[in-house]
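Run folding on both entries below.
>entry_1
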Amino acid sequence: MRRERDRLYRKVGQLHVDVDRLTRLMVSEKRAMIEPEHTRLSVRRQCELIGLSRSSYYRVAKLETE
């Protein structure tokens, strides 16, 4: 039981580090991480996971197509 708890604490700690790293990324870096063709994660969910508003993602896509 203690081993499992310690393993979970380590996992939670790593997730905190990952989230902190993602929040420090520039918007352009976050945009580059989105995979519109991903089969299991929608663009909406990907944006949510990395802390990027969908309007920020689509605004750049629109400008690039003009």
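>entry_2
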Amino acid sequence: MKPHHTTWGIFICLIFFSSCFDTGFPDLPATESLHFSEGVCVFREKEKPLFLTATGDEIKGLNAGSIENLAKANLLGIGSFSSGYAPMQFSTDSREFFFMHIGQDGKPLSEDKYTYLGEFKDGSAVFKVGQAWGLVSDKGKVLVPARYEALTHGTGNSYWIRDKGAWFLLDRDKGERLNNEGFRIIGEFTDGITWVEKLTADESIVMRAYMNQEGTLLTPWYENARNFSEGLAGFKKNGKWGFLNTEGKEMIQPSFAYAGDFSDGLAPFTTKADMGFGKWGYLNTKGEEVISPQFEYAYGFSEGMAVVRDSLGRRGFINTKGELVIPYDYEDAYPFSEGLAAIKHQGKWGFINKSSKEVIAPLFDEIIPFPGKPFEAGFSEGMAKVEVAGRQFMVNKEGKCVMACLE
């Protein structure tokens, strides 16, 4: 289900320049969560926030108590920086709670205070005043007054509003609804197209169709539909999965019991009715079987390699020719990212390269997935988030502790 507004948490970062680089596992009283965005990391020290760069330098304009005109307010929560600003929640001694956008120089974007305030996306952010939602620009201008029961980003110059429990796409300039029929749930726009969901008249069956950014339905109603990947989206009709393009044209006819999303030009599929027992292979964007069904389970490709599973539940990696290039040596594995893949061996997680060489020994209890991507975890911008004995750490590609955190 698409969230009704941009979600963000209270994220706190701890940076250490100590023996953790030698041991990799410092015994530190880390009690908050890591957050790093647009070069800003936040550290809670003695219940007061301290803003640092990735190298540990202080960002003076954001030091605790120095945020302009808010020295007497208590800082409760900090969102991600985007467009140079982060939504922050404050309280006063009189128990007033409010949100404001604060820049890296410590100055508020505007003097307006909100019940809720989201992060900027494509130059705008959702806000809430009382029980009504609106939209504000990254220049502090109110684009949509607070008058809707829910609001979220759409695409281009449009946005979604919820009215009496149904979602409608509105043109921001004209203020007109682009779709006459309200929808139960909405997807994410990709290349100007998204899926929308409704129930049958008797409310017994869920159906999905694809709609463009002008509010026009491009397809009939299907049993299921997914987001686009590499220009194609999976849809389910008469119990089978196929793929269509961004014009709504069915490019691969529905003939698969299940087919995953395309990556590196290939999508995993199974032709058996029961996904748990059928063999898995891969098809190309023409719908041709290029790797025959032979795996107990197959995952999507990343950086030219994909995780596959054998009958004993072990994981290995294949290339785009279907050749097993890394043996079934692992209890679990994630896709490659930045040249390394997280693997689980004898109950612990580590990292290997594409030659199956162990780069970081299996020492970690968990590898923390990327936000919003539960089946993907590993390195991003040279760092990976791991867990040991209930504590979460950021490590570099040498396995050295860079930052420590605990959620």
